[in-house]
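Trying the structure run again after the queue cleared.
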Amino acid sequence: MKSAVETLNPTRVRLTVEVPFEELKPSLDAAYKKINQQVTVPGFRKGKVPARVIDQRFGRGAVLEEAVNDALPKLYQEAVEEGELSPLGQPEVDITELKDNELLAFTAEVDVRPAIEIPDYSGIEVTVDAVEVADEDVEKAVGQLRERFASTTVVERPAAEGDVVKVDLEAKVDGEVLEDGVAKGIDYVIGSGELLDGIDEAVTGLEAGGSATFTSELKGGSAAGREAEVKVDVTSVSARELPELDDDFAQMASEFDTIEELRADTRKRLERMKKYDQATQAQEKVLDALISLVEVPIPEKLLQDEINTRKHNLVNHQLPQLGMDLAAYLRMQEKSEEEFEAELKEQAEKGIRTQFILDELVAKEKLNVNQEELTEHLVRRAQSSGMSPDQFAQAIVESGQVPMLVGEVARGKALALVVEAAKVTDSNGEVVDLEDEEDEAEDGETAEAATAEAEGAETSSEESAEQGGEKSEG
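Done. Tokens:
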């Protein structure tokens, strides 16, 4: 077999392949055998029809077509390996010549990974937010814990801020009650801002049995983002009593003996969270800086496929879980469809560039992924998808996505190399030591999260695993 590669553009090539006819003999034999099992010819036992009879009765062309279809994938793969190509997607194959007993010639056009030159990235410098925990942050966190231990008592008086009201809600849009616009028995703390805009003013001053109507923009459901007329019925009013912030509270709400020990631990916890956020911010900024240094041509078909995949995942998996469709989502985001498509394209382009650049870095630095690293990554993915590690692993294996997870870990390691080489300072001008911060990260995530988010791979891998799990359960 002879093959040649013609570069059409930085991301697309044309393979020209010529195959001597004798190399098709295994596929020709397989074609005769397959046709033999499918046809019946009087005077011959099934499967024992001679080749010359098949040629006479059904035509040599049918045999050649079957043989070529059988041989093409293997011949194409041999040409790809000979040309040392990294194809993306399926090729467009065109048979240019087929001479019986002489020659098969074909061309195959396919998108390929572009050649990327990784420049010196040691000069990357980024600035991140400083880790600062104010006394107000500590008191707010302790106050939130205090709220969880509040007691309530039903009272016979008008509702006021801080009270808990039990309410029934009914939402109308254009005068029609929404199918998902009725809710009963909801407990709401007046002033918490956790429900609809306008409800605080509507229920303040109402006693049990009272009703009010207000207008509000719906935050979710089938009419998310639209103005609705909401009727609220108050069925009970309860006063909340917060425990004193003293040592007794600390012993009741935590493992600490004193309120000061609880405050000190809260400060440490907030510092750990802010350090992890700082490390994540550094990874994202370093990644953006790296991407800006590298010219990456993107195959048009690959880009369109990535856009379609992201849109499909959003419309068919993420939004239904929130009880809304794309139109409701766009209303809530206050975006036009054109703005949404442009944003989607920008995200897809960044994801592809990220993957190409980090994959090149993985190859350049000869980075490998060991079993322990893969297992840790798999466990984290399982946790975020709500599946057990065993279920997630089984689904990933059945859907053939183990190489994708290996790639995520490898790209995370590649980004970690770049982050380690970069100069990271905080907004106070202090140099940030990210190694300590990653060690202290509560959930164990590293640069893998930043790369997965940029690529959009995390969601798709979890959704694929969940779908695979559903199939295996069924």
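Residues 89 and 111 are 7 Å apart (CA to CA). Worth checking whether this holds up in the mutant runs.
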